[in-house]
């Protein structure tokens, strides 16, 4: 039998090793394939984005090259370029002519704007706040013409962008370099409009290093970033050139928003750099599919198939082993059952002896010499009845303990209908249940049989609680008989005094006290919960009563 088990174990080990090796190889291959596919897709995407940006920068260069000795105050400078700029089909949002006007040209520029039919021909600041033209001493950059002319754009001409936080520095730098320059991402058309870029190309007069103005084209970010491909393996973001901790992200509708990069967020799988408007832009690529998880799932499938085949082979050998082991197991079960039966009989004998010893003590103490036979007979019957009740409750729970409130049933103690019980319904051990059952009977049986001094039966309250933290919890029990006194309450018997003051506290490892107040008789018992519950006894009982396997 040992040899057969060794053979089955060896076959299982070989099968597990081969399955694990195959799963590992598949996992590595899937990761490599996914990595190559993602890298190629990202390279293609970055190349397409760069081509798009190059086309748009070429449009700006061509448009600036078509200008010949422009007149800065004209409001129709883009008219000759309309066919050229639309021929490129670069999907710009707005193309504009921003003239660098000297203080002496401002009045003529206003008249030109008014004659061109723009809705607000006044020379004003970029946010439509009025400018005092008399205080202007240096040239300013004013929007003089744009395409397309629509209700959304007709109000833009006349704005000066010198003090704009983004466009102003961009125009100054483009004038200094003499080359097309792109701005930082800003909202287009309006404050909450789509986020995009503005590309400005300076227009230089012949023989002058100072530009006469700028041809600008604005583009939305989403088309530039090619973010509208739902079937791609990745999502692309644009790193904010002004703050490395921010990213421009496009949602499913192509709306671009600026989002902060929080600490702990995953880093982009790949970062690519593209050039546009004399600047470098960083594109971050996040893989949409978790390649590691996908490879892991595939490896799990391969491993499962290998383990299944291993299980089939081992099962053939195991079937033979099972037939041989079944007979041996039946013999072992029979032996175990006999041992368990012996243990159960020994435990039953032990508990019967304990119960008989308790009953013998009850009979001896109750019927001691000099006792009133009628009272003794009543007490003896009640005490034995209380013991019978607790044994019945323990048998119903297979000696796993008794609910404390069950010890206050009318069949167990007298005057149960006058007792108010308050406390958690904890399960006490068999030993504690026997002591507490006799204790409750003794307390209830000695309450007055007739009327008290105030003409009422005593009102009895039995209250208990558990306090403290594990494992040092403490059980507190309090019995209080109201409307009673030392004169009305039947005197405790010798057995009752021994039970109340010594037997019950010692059985629970606690202390007890009894006393009279002005209006009641009180008995208090305090004991550690570890002896009240006695998990050791309960575990031993559970082991004996558990079915044989």
UniProtKB/TrEMBL annotation:
EC number: 2.7.13.3
Membrane-traversing stretches: 299-322
UniProt entry keywords in alphabetical sequence: ATP-binding, Kinase, Membrane, Nucleotide-binding, Phosphoprotein, Transferase, Transmembrane, Transmembrane helix
Start and end residues of each CHASE domain: 68-252
Record field: catalytic activity: ATP + protein L-histidine = ADP + protein N-phospho-L-histidine
Keyword Transmembrane helix: yes
UniProt-recorded Gene Ontology molecular function terms: ATP binding; protein histidine kinase activity
Signal transduction histidine kinase HWE region domain sequence ranges: 347-425
Keyword ATP-binding in annotation: yes
Pfam families xrefs: HWE_HK
Record's protein name: histidine kinase
Organism expressing this protein natively: Bradyrhizobium icense
């Amino acid at each position: 039998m040992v040899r057969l088990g060794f053979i089955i174990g060896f076959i299982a080990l070989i099968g597990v090793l081969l399955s694990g090796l195959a799963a590992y190889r598949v996992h590595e291959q899937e990761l490599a394939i996914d990595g190559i596919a993602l890298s190629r897709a990202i390279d293609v995407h970055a190349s397409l984005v760069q081509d798009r940006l190059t086309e748009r920068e070429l449009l700006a260069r061509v448009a600036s090259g078509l200008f010949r000795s422009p007149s800065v105050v004209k409001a129709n400078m883009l008219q000759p370029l309309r066919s050229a700029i639309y021929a490129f089909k670069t999907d710009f949002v707005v193309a504009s002519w921003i003239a660098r006007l000297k203080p002496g040209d401002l009045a003529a520029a206003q008249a030109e704007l008014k004659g061109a039919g723009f809705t607000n021909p006044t020379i004003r600041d970029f946010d439509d706040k009025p400018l005092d033209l008399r205080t202007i001493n240096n040239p300013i950059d004013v929007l003089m013409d744009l395409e397309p002319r629509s209700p959304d754009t007709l109000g833009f001409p006349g704005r000066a962008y010198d003090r704009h936080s983004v466009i102003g520095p961009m125009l100054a730098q483009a004038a200094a370099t003499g080359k097309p320059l792109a701005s930082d991402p800003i909202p287009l058309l309006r404050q909450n409009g789509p986020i995009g870029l503005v590309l400005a190309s300076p227009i230089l007069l012949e023989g002058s290093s100072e530009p006469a103005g700028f041809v600008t084209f604005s583009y939305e970010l989403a088309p530039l970033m090619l973010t509208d491909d739902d079937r791609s393996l990745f999502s692309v973001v644009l790193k904010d050139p002004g703050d490395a901790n921010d990213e421009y992200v496009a949602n499913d509708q192509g709306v671009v928003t600026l989002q902060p990069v929080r600490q702990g967020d995953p880093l982009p799988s790949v970062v690519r750099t593209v050039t546009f408007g004399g600047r470098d832009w960083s594109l971050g690529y996040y893989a949409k599919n978790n390649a590691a998880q996908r490879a892991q799932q595939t490896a799990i499938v391969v491993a499962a198939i290998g383990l299944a085949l291993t299980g089939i082979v081992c099962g053939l050998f195991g079937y033979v082993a099972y037939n041989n082991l079944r007979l041996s197991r039946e013999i072992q079960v029979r032996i175990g059952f006999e041992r368990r039966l012996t243990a159960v009989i020994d435990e039953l004998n032990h508990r019967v002896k304990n119960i008989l010893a308790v009953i013998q003590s009850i009979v001896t103490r109750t019927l001691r010499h000099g006792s009133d036979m009628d009272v003794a007979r009543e007490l003896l019957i009640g005490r034995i009845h209380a013991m019978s009740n607790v044994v019945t409750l323990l048998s119903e729970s297979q000696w796993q303990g008794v609910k404390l409130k069950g010890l206050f049933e009318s069949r167990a103690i007298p005057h149960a209908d006058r007792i108010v019980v308050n406390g958690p319904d904890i399960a006490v051990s068999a030993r504690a249940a026997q002591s507490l059952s006799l204790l409750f009977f003794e307390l209830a049986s000695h309450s007055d049989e007739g009327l008290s001094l105030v003409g009422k039966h005593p009102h009895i309250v039995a209250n208990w609680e558990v306090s403290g933290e594990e494992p040092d919890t403490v059980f507190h029990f309090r019995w209080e008989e109201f409307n009673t006194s030392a004169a009305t309450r039947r005197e405790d018997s010798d057995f009752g005094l021994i039970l109340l003051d010594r037997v019950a506290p010692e059985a629970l490892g606690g202390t007890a006290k009894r006393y009279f107040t002005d209006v009641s008789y009180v008995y208090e018992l305090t004991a550690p919960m570890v002896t009240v519950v006695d998990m050791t006894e309960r575990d031993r009982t559970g082991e004996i009563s558990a079915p044989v396997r």
